[in-house]
Amino acid sequence: MSKETRIKQIKRIIEVEKPVGKIDIPWKDALEPMDVYQIPLTSLIFNKYNGRILSRTKSYENQNRVIDAEDKAGKELIEKLLWDSKPQKNKETLESLKKLGQEKIGIITQDGIIIDGNRRAMLLNKIDHIDYFKAVILPIEYEGNPLEIEKFETKYQLGEERKLDYNPIEIYLKIQSLYKQLSGKSFYSKATVDKQALKKIYEWVGNYKNINSVNDIEYTLAVMNNMDEYLDWFDYNGIYTTLDEREEQFRGLTSWLINFYGEESRKVFDNYKDSDVDDLKTVCYDLIRIKYKNEKFRFIAQGQKPKHFFGDEQLWESFQRSHREIISKNSESKIDLNIKNLEAHLNSRDSIFKENIGPKLDDNVDNHYQKLRNKQNQEEPEKQINKALDAFNSINKGNKNFNSKVVQNLVEELGNKVFDSLQKKSPSRILEHVINLLESIDIGNIPKQEIQDVKDKTKKIQKIGYQINKQL
């Protein structure tokens, strides 16, 4: 059905059909009572840029594929995206609609574009005995005033329907889109920020999740900038579906970048440079790609200087060097931009990346976190030594691997460090330890092949003891 036909049909409904109800709608900064009509589902077009699936449709169209919501293929694609956005919720709502019918009123434009209720309309299309959609008709066509439509969607959907819990990335894209339209700028920059645009967006969005002030709107834009840069870094430009389940890590990293750039932060190691912050960012991108747990992600740069890797230059250099070594040994297939399902292709690449080196990246974080803890506990030697004793005691000495040359060399190195420490602090205690060791030797169990070697060593011990005694 063409746009002109839809407009005529909807106009006829307004003029001829009897309204089935009336509700107040927040239109142009005022609550306005509007009639509710039963609109044939065949007269409606899905809004492909509605907030629920914005990241999906943008990702699809950024592959140079246009979604024509008016043809059958476009309609079916949008229906699939809407269903996949919340499968379990959709199943529950579908059953409710079958039993009770449509309870929540939708909102459309004069040319039949669904502004609010795309998900409900999609579900109603699956029910044979329902062929209409109860909706208010806004006094405007969709293309007549896009900013007014955007304003309405934002205030209405993020206000009254916030309980539907939109995918987090949709909110970032929505705010970025609003800023571009209101400011006339192609991207957000702190240096040239349009404060009036920020203020207006906050008025429309109101308090929503992490947004409680105008400053939070600006921070959201900074996070979205970081997300775009991440996509660019991995050549995933515009494929916003690859940002799923990574919001908290992006928020954390964005806060670090805001605080650290400018080379003035006291939370970073002394004399750091902005180039070090660049390194921090790209290292974090790898961890974000594998959806690294936020509780460990914070070890990288969260908090005061002594509490994270980026606060200690030596520790940071060691961590970063090991991290990049792991990354350098991983090989990946090239991205096939011509593949039919690019989203699935990129998700598969990320899954393989995580499977191949995720455990190694995690081990690197764990190892350096232990080093960080050791540095933090340098003033607690008793605590650290007890930990070392517990670790050594937990080893199964009967395991065949314990007798391997590599392990025994490490045991010897550990023993040498202990003896060296004792010698520096108390030669008397090290001699006492040697005496205890000598007295514990079971002469009867000395292997025949070692008897001569033991004799030679005991003579050497006698000689060293004699020299020490003589010099004292």
SSE layout and pairings?
Layout: H1 3-16, E1 21-27, E2 30-40, H2 54-61, H3 72-85, H4 87-100, E3 106-108, E4 114-116, H5 118-124, E5 132-137, H6 146-157, H7 168-183, H8 195-205, H9 214-233, H10 247-260, H11 274-289, H12 294-297, H13 313-328, H14 342-376, H15 381-393, H16 405-425, H17 427-439, H18 451-471
Parallel strand pairs: 3-5
Antiparallel strand pairs: 1-2, 2-5, 3-4
Describe the protein.
With 472 residues, the protein is of the alpha+beta class. Among the domains are: 3-144, no CATH class; 245-376, no CATH class. It is built from 18 helices and five strands. It has a five-stranded mixed beta sheet. The longest helix has 35 residues, at 342-376. The chain starts with a helix and ends with a helix. The model has no long low-confidence stretch (mean pLDDT 88).
